[in-house]
What does this fold into?
Amino acid sequence: MRYIDLRSDTVTQPTREMREAMYNAVVGDDVYGDDPTVNRLEKMAADMLGKEAALFLPSGTMANQIGVMCHTSRGDEVILSGDCHIFIHEVGGVAVLSGANLRPLSFPRGIYDPVMIEKAIRPADIHQPRTALICLENALSNGRVVPIEIMAAVYNLAKQKDIAVHLDGARLFNAAIALGVDVREISKNCDTLSCCLSKGLAAPVGSLLAGDAATIERARKYRKMLGGGMRQCGVLAAAGIIALEEMVKRLPEDHDNAKYLAKRLAELAGVEMEEDSPQINMVFFKLHRTSEFIETLPAKLLEKGIKINEAGQRGFRLVTSNEVCREDIDYFIEALNDLC
Ligand SMILES: Cc1ncc(COP(=O)(O)O)c(C=O)c1O
It folds into this structure.
């Protein structure tokens, strides 16, 4: 049975073109630096992301964790948002791997406030940790996009204070499309950045970490230490190349579909759309129904071939991606309307 899957863009399947490229990929032992397909992906990624070098990694989590490891020593402090993926969804990895202290800040709607960040930077004081790193996200995990001016203000502040900036750019290309800029306009406001190939870009596996050549060399060693040195992973990189060459171009379609979904939802009685949603491919809304109705809705929709996640604090989150078309959205709206 074909499901309409609105849970996340991580559910995307590799495309036929990716599968063919994977089958035909010329590979080698990447730990020896011998895999021509990985080398091509890393070079292409560095150019696109506007950095000297890039590294292919199994996941966004590993890319972020290695990014933090590259910029910190034990006991250093990292300023980040209390809502971000590194703080909430990476299993406390920074404590384990970097031994760094996290300083989570609560930003209104998640959008960084350079004044709050400046206040959180530690003074030179024998009692206090050293602020070594600021971690940003764009697009934010909450589906919002951070304006370039804010990223630039944070980066300038960081450089004045000799603090590094790592960007979790799991959905960097979505952010660039929403902001109407080249990704390099975003990436110039950080020292290192991670970027996922396996979300809206539909590759089966893989993320990138980009930065200056010396940092990426250290990151390569950390990746080996963490068991992420992959051998003939050109089969995966081949899909990553298609992700960057072809799939970035079609991401605006996901954003348009999210807008269409939001418009159709807003027409239904009892639906309250989040005021500034959608900005990327994520739609947030609340349903004014009983809590029993809300809890059982995912199971009822599943019977109709639709997958959604349970509601969270902000209500339901629906995500559009490569395998969700307008007809699927119409079918979902009809199914929801019938159940309501
Ligand atoms: C903002 C953000 N950063 C990082 C990640 C981690 O990516 P991965 O699932 O590949 O570890 C995700 C995953 O959903 C994410 O949404």
User: Anything to note?
Assistant: The CA atoms of residues 192 and 211 lie 4 Å apart. The pocket of pyridoxal-5'-phosphate is lined by residues 10, 59-61, 64, 85, 137, 141, 168, 170, 196, 198, 207 (CB under 6 Å). DSSP finds 13 helices and twelve strands in the chain.
